[in-house]
Specification:
By secondary structure, the chain is mainly alpha-helical. It has a domain at 2-72. It is 69% helix and 6% strand. It is built from three helices and two strands. The protein has helices at 2-36, 43-71, 75-99, and strands at residues 101-104, 107-110. The chain has a two-stranded antiparallel sheet with strand order 1-2. A hairpin with a 2-residue loop joins strand 1 and strand 2.
Length: 129
Amino acid sequence: MAVQAARAKIESLKGAINDMRMKTAMAEMNEMAAGMIGSLGGSGDTLNRLHEMVEEERNRAAGRARVARDALDLSEIDLKEAELNALADQALADFAAAEGIRLDDGTAEASEPPQRSMGARPASEGESA
């Protein structure tokens, strides 16, 4: 549960960061395009140069994203998830032992009629409802 929430938060942050970078890059490209009009030869040269700048920035951003992803250490999150699963298994085993339930191969069977501490007690033959 916590791992899924953390991963969802990480994905959300990745999207927000990518959106921010894209908008920043678009603003920079528009500023460059505005400054380039008339400074180079014809409009074809200006568009080609702008295309080169966009591709260069895209490649740089993709590289930074790969480095950031590779630097992200998920081993601690995986360790915490394993710890929580072990605690859940232990709690289930403790409960089963307290209730007289035998847990084998993922199936639960009562070895003898258990002395239950939870739930409704069945009415015996001598009791009236």
